[in-house]
Amino acid sequence: MNILASLKTYVVVLVALSLVFLGAGAVQAGGMEAGDTGAEALGRGGAFAAKADDPSAINYNPAGFAKLTGHRVVVGFHAMHHSYSFERKGSFLSVDTERPWFSAPSHIMFSTDFGLRKGFTLGIGLYTPPSTPRQYPQSYGNSTAQVLPSPQRYDTVKVSGLVLFPSLVAAYQITPWLTVGASFQIWMLSTETRTVAAVSSACSQAEDPGCDVLVDMKVEDWFSPTGSLGILLRPHRQFELGVMVRFPASAEAKGKAKLTFGPEVDRLQSSMRYPLVEPDDPNVTMEMSYPWMLRAGARVIFFHGDEELADFEVDFVFENWSNASKRNVQIKARSLNEPMEPTVIDWKLKDTFSIRAGGSYQHALSAHVKVIYRAGLFVESATTDVSDTLLAIFSPMRFGVTGGLGLRWKWLSLDIALAHFVFPKRIVNNSTIRVTDFGGTAPGPVIGNGTYRASLTQISLQVGVSFGTEPQDSPSRKTPRIGDFQMGTSSTR
Predict the structure, then answer these.
(1) What is the domain partition of the chain in residue ranges?
(2) Which of 45, 61, 229, 236 could form a disulfide with 244 if both were Cys (CB 3.0 to 4.6 A apart)?
(3) Beta-strand pair 450-467/412-428
(4) What is d(CA 313, CA 303) in angstroms, rounded to the nearest whole number?
(5) Does domain 2-477 have CATH number 3.90.79.10?
(6) Which are the contacts of 347, defined by CB distance < 8 A and separation ≥ 6?
(7) Residue 228 pLDDT > 80, yes or no?
(8) For 141-192, what is each residue's pLDDT tens digit?
């Protein structure tokens, strides 16, 4: 009973913390993941599964928390500029994201070894996966005579929301060469989408805006448990391995839908015995999944005497997005006096693979101040096939170039990173994306053929404070020699 009471308190506290920490602006985060969490990891190209030596390791390898001595608090922020444009074939109109800049806190974590230095560290906090909202225009023009329907409206108008991972982490250094860690997390989400469907039987011309149906949906699920397991191996003083598995999660998000009919649909409905949808703001349930992930990294460490001078790491990341591709939607309403059937939305996602490589170099400015230079590269496979390209997600493969700086002064740390991601242009001629037709017996017309261009730039900042431990320049923080070393550069416990 005490354990259950403690768990309930933990959840309530972290929910309150999330609302205070993220504030109202971050509610617009959403979409598929892009970029990385934490300024140190981002500056290294996301190659952090083996190094994992700051509290942002919750996203890379929970075993890394055992490297942290004393008590530490870190707060991270990120800003993103994204562009994802679409020029529909034959339309001569190009649309792009309306609000390219997005910024929000990314994580807040606290870790402690309780001052015991026995190889056990506990961490608590929350983070948001890196993502951006996407919003596109519904129409063009500034007067009734000039208004034109937006060419991408049947794909996406708006995708936004909030995703949080309140987390509890424990890590233990079993031997000088073996460390394990685990996390318990809650997947918390609130999503808002706006798309356009059609009732083709109300119009004689395809894609007539008078036959459009505007569908707004907001759903939430604040408790979907998940977690991760991690391991660190250091068979040699200059070599380190890290592996992390993140477990999948399933959510049953509930909320409301709002259907707004175009004038021609309203005219058709007035001649019918029963309404097309009743009520027009029905309850809705959406079942969705978060994928499992494998991250593995190998790190080579270079020393100057007993102190770590530089390192280089290569990570491999696999994410099982194919099992998170479908969303089962149940709108609790009646259509023509019959219950509406469940709908399956399939984004046709593919499993993704990425290679991330990066490292760092430390330079001492004085006895108490160090500057850390970081750089990295990565490549990640496409999220969908070319024919399944969507604006709701970043579909093409991506390449990234990253760099960063870190400052260490006694108990204070400051890290900043910049990353630029390039997505090769996609020209789609055989799209599988069609109009969702509420009134037709055949599939709606294809609307995904055209040219897609995307780019993303991310800036991350992290501030950390440590106390109850030695300053960064303390002799006792030097890495012990092989045979009696501890993991990383943490002090002898």
Answers:
(1) 2-477
(2) 61
(3) antiparallel
(4) 15
(5) no
(6) 325, 326, 327, 384, 388, 390, 392, 393
(7) yes
(8) 554 445 567 888 888 888 888 889 999 999 999 999 999 999 999 999 998 9
Q: Which long-range contacts (CB under 8 A, 24 or more apart) does 14-19 make?
A: 14/124, 14/126, 14/166, 14/186, 15/166, 15/188, 15/222, 17/108, 17/126, 17/166, 18/126, 18/164, 18/166, 18/188
Tokens 């390219």 belong to which residue? 100
Which token pair is 234?
Answer: 């250091």
Q: What is the mean pLDDT of residues 118-145?
A: 78
Distance CA 221, CA 376 (A): 36
**Quick one: how far is CA 406 from the chain centroid?**
24
CB 295 within 8 A of CB 313: no
Paired tokens of 11: 């959840």
* Nearest partner of 72 among 106, 42, 39, 108, judged by Cα: 108
Asked whether the beta carbons of 264 and 161 are under 8 A apart, the reply is no
Please count the CA atoms within 13 angstroms of the CA of 341 that sit on its side-chain side: 4
131, 169 Cβ separation under 8 angstroms: no
